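#struct-help
A.M.: can someone run this one for me? Single chain, 306 residues.
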Amino acid sequence: MEVLLNIQCRHYNYPPDYQRVSEFLIAHHQAGNLDGNWLEPAWEYMHGHPHLDSSSLGSIGVWEAEGEIVAVAHYESRLGEAFFEFHAAYRHLRTEMLDYAEANLAGRSQKDGRKHLRAYVNDNDPEFQTLVKSRGYEKDPEGTRPLYRFHIPEPFLPIPLAEGFRLTSLADDCDWARVHRVLWRGFDHGDDVPMNDEELESRRRSFDTRKARRDLKIAVAGPDGEFASFCGMFYEAEKRFAYVEPVATDPRYRRLGLGRAAVLEGIRRCAALGATTAYVGSDRQFYRVVGFTKVYDSECWVKYFE
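D.P.: on it. Structure tokens below:
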């Protein structure tokens, strides 16, 4: 693989660079995510997420060689975290990218206000691990972000569903109030669900992203018509994989297999489009029972600068 030597680093320019980075992630994706980069749908979901600090997007770093993107250093929600994406032939940029992240992506701790950086390094990249250790970073086990993979069976097995419930999607039954309610309660924020135009528009933006398909946003409707469980699903057509994000079940309806049914229905629909694999960024037992197996851990390494 040819390595271009005229490498330049610059700040991310949103929105023009969004699509270019998206194409970079797709182009360098290897089967089984052996490339170790973010899956492209995660990049898409990040840009629609209500917790994204969009005012700091210019802090993201982009490395180019003769106009081709070869690496990206970025945060996910806010400054203080750093993720690193590579063209396979440019992993030698690790030190330069970590330097950039420390200078541009560091943030203030919400607990004590100290300047810090949480650098995420895959456990199958020993050279990068050695680098962060040598720079004084310490591992935070609670910050580990796993990636799991599901081999889609053929034929796809029937999906059991508890009596009185039905599978639907936002293509057929789009009600942002019901989506907001199941996600709010499903992520254990309590019974007092705020309902206003701002909240509902925030939910819409997070799911109506650039390449999103409403027919892959799966809900399980209960006997009263409310959404009891919800699964967001993305499909990457060029590399033929599904990506699960997010999944939530109303506490009143847990342990009925509804979340499992929503996830499997989303994967089934992606399989019908051509997907052979599905991914999720979680190691909850729920996913292991479904049949997901670990690909790697993206470990969190923390350094305080003051």
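A.M.: thanks! The two ends are 42 Å apart (CA to CA).
D.P.: also worth noting: The chain has two domains: 7-144+299-304, 166-275.
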